[in-house]
Design the sequence.
């Protein structure tokens, strides 16, 4: 199958390689009438942009979005929104040496196994640069959700062994710390840890948490299209993610039911829960509480210390990777997590519109 | 959207409620020519069937499959395979009391929020009985995979605080212990733990692991349709699963790259890895190693101790659930995990057939 | 791909062969809260049922629908509606002789070419009986459309050379003439023509027209998912249809623009058209006028006169078909056309709910 | 739903408006390893390009394709192929006058009804320029089909009352006559007819035929995804098409079975048919004969004579359209028909790869 599209009604299709002329995304199915401008997109892309601190790759990319269709007089028209980002600093020369060998932890071998050959420059389609299209699409989704009071916020909760202290949680810090941690103190410790990693020609992983507030009860479907199933797919489709948790996640498996169930109570005339172990989703459908997700990100596979591997000719070799690489991808992946979550919820919001006769009567007036 | 279908080429559509006349599944897109009989299905359904030990619900269901279409002279014809399982022991009377109230940890409230009303008998469509259709479909997928040397095996690795000892791993035990654990000793401890839970009117969760052997390198897609993304969705779509791990899963986030990358080496003229932290998938595409997954299952929400909740009229009430419930759903969910994994891999196997010109030449002879 | 599902949100999946135990359909995505009972379905199935006049096959089938899921207290729950029709008068003995040969005009050869073998009993999945599932699903769609004042009406406009006289158009006659013609006089002539065909061991074709009234302006999409594109697919997917027209259809190609454009005028404060050459669709989107379609149906390929053909062994043979066959399939296909049209419009109605921000505000109250 | 994507495995997503900065298409699912260059695409786009004769619009567009992704060293990589065409001669000033009124025969009114407002410049997304993306995608599909000996050829068979003489059929003429007719004599008559139309401020329609040679028996599916059903949708999704015929099309409805069935015979050891009334498809599956389609195209709705219509304020007005318009769109639509047919067959070719166990064994070697 195609494989580069995500979503059913609110759908994105991304394209482009790390070292081709450009990358981009087509957003199809965005409702007509949404105010949208290039700045709404650029703000998101800037958060993913490399070269902004000592702990990201030194590759400099403007990542400037060009809006090519789907807007008229500042609003979406209901037709596809095409966005393109030119690649500006491709240095293919960096990659000559890896054309022929399989980097451990990367998709080089699996691409060759699947397609018979691959665009090896910078990882081609398997490069993290592919996520630029997701973020541009996610920005549109987030703009749509904003109209309905839904806010998606992701942040780093750990890098290597360094975890945030939830008692110091500061939402402002998410955008000001280079790590994306909502805790400046932990962030400083994480930076020190990363400096060490880099000195040792090594890399680090971490955990990103995502909270979605303001989701009305009733989004998602009961069987295969559970909201948490789709959110898991969304997050697990991000390159380096190896585990996804919803609500209390892995902790629930050793817990008893009396401790894990969230009691329902009334508050201001509305049904509410007095705890949120479930992470805002029951039976695949949102329950009106905050949706809580966590993505576990593996350490960057590109490390500068020598590694054992094989080449395309089937010879065992030693490989020392060179070039420009992030010692940890977590900080730049925060906005990717946010984007994938926003895309998933936007699609659920639209799909739910036709779930009951009542809704349709409101639209068609019968 | 529909929401009751899973897969793109190898696709299942399930239907049915806990207390309606029947449940079932339509398998569409299974290749023609596969030998298949009712027994292939029944063996799987029997593993999910309730009432087989002291640690599952006492509800007795024959769960006998009726094959209604898609077979001719013992082989699949390429047309839809329809399978039906009659419900035989519905006791709706058990559920009169919950018609009006929202059980904590269940989908009662979210169904009402989404659809305006619900079939409350036994949870209706949100009942665990819905998984019978998945298992019937999964049995067909497993039969197909068998032709290509691919084996899917799931088993319980923990229930509550009781974990298996991997040094005692005994594959035979998976089907003989009532817990689905590959370790009879741990299983006995888990049974004791569950007996305690039941005495205290409480319930337990656990962890299911799934290993997929024999998958050729090259299955899966590089962006949104990553094999691990689809496997995560598959597992997270099972009612009580709250976290999914691939390979070393959550452990990777605190690890360094040098320790997490799997070196490639040659073995018998083939590319292989000397470790498998990645769990058999790199960049969303299978790498030829075993695929390893873990699903974290929450404790059964139906507990007999009284709980705080609200009813449809918005009154706060105390609720003591009665009826027939599993103290832990993990043992019966093992085959559901296996089925969902088999369905996902079968679809990837079929989709990959058209991934490269070489493959098509083999079929169309040019 | 699967290939047995139709629709995106309002979706049906049909299954079953002519001579298997049963046929059926799963309707997924029907909005919750729609009043529905078995009679709503049976009325449609009865119109498709064979053996009701001298001009249909003598095969007697009760075609009684069994409703298996998706309903509670007389209303749809939003979950899949599964419906099954048992086959009761299979006489496989009739088909022994065709197991091995390719009937001209039938799918015997193409099924073998695609799948390697086939269920030859009564055509298996390629039998006209497959449409029973479509009609059951179409009945649900029609019931939904009824809530929004949308009515789908199909009727026969010609059989062989006999055409209706539009001056005598009598809607009552559609259900009372054995031909489905809204003109009793033409119907009598068509019956005489068919009697002649049968005497000569031959068969006839015809044309079915379908009018959809009450469709609000705005349904359908502008590019690939044009409403007329989907309606064409819907009708062309019915076994014997070889041409589809929208509005004035083939007549437009020899006409000039000044004669083909429909002028807009105001009527009762609403935009209306003073003619309807376009057949109710402009740019793929409904314009509020009646939607008009025509399907051209080929003569029944099963004829009793001897025909040249080949068998599976590649031998040239002469074949005289026996068994029970309709001399013309048009009368029984009328309700199939109606069903496919209803399914297409129901899906467009649901999809359109999310087309603009205004609609979503009405549902989510912002 | 999205609505701007076509195909299941071989899938295109088009985007762009007549007067925006650019138009384009993303081709996803093209198998890896196909030789492809910009020229393969440009040749197709040039056939659609305006301004090439006295009978097309005078708008001059270079329609130069820019290939942005999915290629490496002259071959497809299996990842999305993104192609963009800059709009260069937008003259939005031409459209100020129609911003506010509904042109008869156009989608102005229906877009407003659906989306609440529209990009009125040159018809926006409903412009015929949208087909540029289809043609770029179709060129890739045609290139793929060429590898398997499948050739798609479309041509004009009539314009207004002027029809080709099949006795004079000259395939060379298709690309050399300004009408796309394979008959220079008829083409000259058609040009004279069009000159008359233009003098009278009127426009013309016509018929396009499409022949697909070399299709192996076995492509397509038996129920909803019939090859002819998808081809009909493909052609009917082209703006001005109002009827589609397969094989003998509308002629079959008045014919008897004995005259319509195509006898099977053996030829060179292969099953063949001695006639082709069916147009190469039986039961929705290709039978190895040529596939034959006809699309009936309405006269260009933009005419210079005054027409009655209404404006957005609900006032009845007279409208005389100005600007640059084709007197007949048939000649430029020929390559669009060819493209849509190629896309449909390419998708069927890929989907069929997984239809039977035999095929999969050839790929996976068991």
Sequence:
């Amino acid at each position: 199958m195609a494989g580069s599209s995500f979503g059913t009604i609110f759908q994105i299709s991304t394209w482009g390689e790390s070292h081709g002329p450009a990358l981009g995304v087509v957003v199809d199915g965005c409702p007509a009438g949404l105010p949208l401008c290039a700045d709404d997109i650029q703000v998101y892309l800037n958060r993913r942009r490399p070269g902004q601190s000592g702990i990201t790759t030194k590759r400099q990319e403007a990542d400037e979005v060009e809006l090519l269709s789907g807007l008229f007089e500042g609003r979406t028209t209901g037709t596809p929104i095409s966005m393109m980002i030119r690649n500006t600093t491709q240095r293919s020369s960096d990659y000559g040496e890896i054309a022929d060998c399989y980097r451990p932890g990367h998709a080089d071998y699996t691409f060759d196994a699947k397609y018979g050959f691959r665009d090896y420059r910078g990882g081609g389609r398997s490069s993290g640069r592919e996520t630029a299209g997701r973020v541009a699409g996610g920005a549109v989704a987030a703009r749509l959700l904003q109209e309905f009071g839904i806010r998606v916020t992701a942040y780093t909760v750990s890098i290597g062994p360094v975890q945030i202290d939830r008692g110091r949680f500061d939402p402002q810090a998410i955008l000001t710390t280079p790590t994306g941690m909502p805790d400046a103190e932990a962030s400083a410790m994480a930076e020190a840890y990363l400096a060490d990693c880099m000195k040792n020609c090594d890399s680090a992983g971490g955990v990103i948490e995502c909270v979605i507030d303001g989701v009305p009860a009733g989004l998602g479907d009961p069987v295969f299209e559970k909201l948490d199933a789709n959110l898991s797919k969304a997050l697990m489709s991000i390159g380096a993610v190896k585990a996804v948790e919803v609500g209390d996640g892995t902790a629930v498996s050793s817990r008893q039911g009396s401790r894990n169930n969230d009691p329902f109570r009334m508050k201001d005339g509305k049904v509410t829960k007095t705890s949120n172990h479930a992470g805002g989703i029951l039976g695949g459908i949102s329950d009106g509480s905050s949706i809580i997700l966590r993505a576990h990100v593996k350490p960057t596979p590109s490390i500068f210390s020598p590694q054992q591997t094989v080449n395309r000719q089937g010879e065992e070799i030693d490989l020392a990777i060179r070039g420009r690489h992030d010692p940890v991808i977590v900080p730049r992946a925060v906005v990717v997590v946010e984007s994938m979550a926003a895309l998933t919820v936007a699609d659920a919001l639209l799909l739910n519109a036709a779930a009951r006769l009542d809704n349709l009567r409101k639209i068609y007036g019968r």
Notes: The first strand of chain C starts at residue 5 and ends at 6.
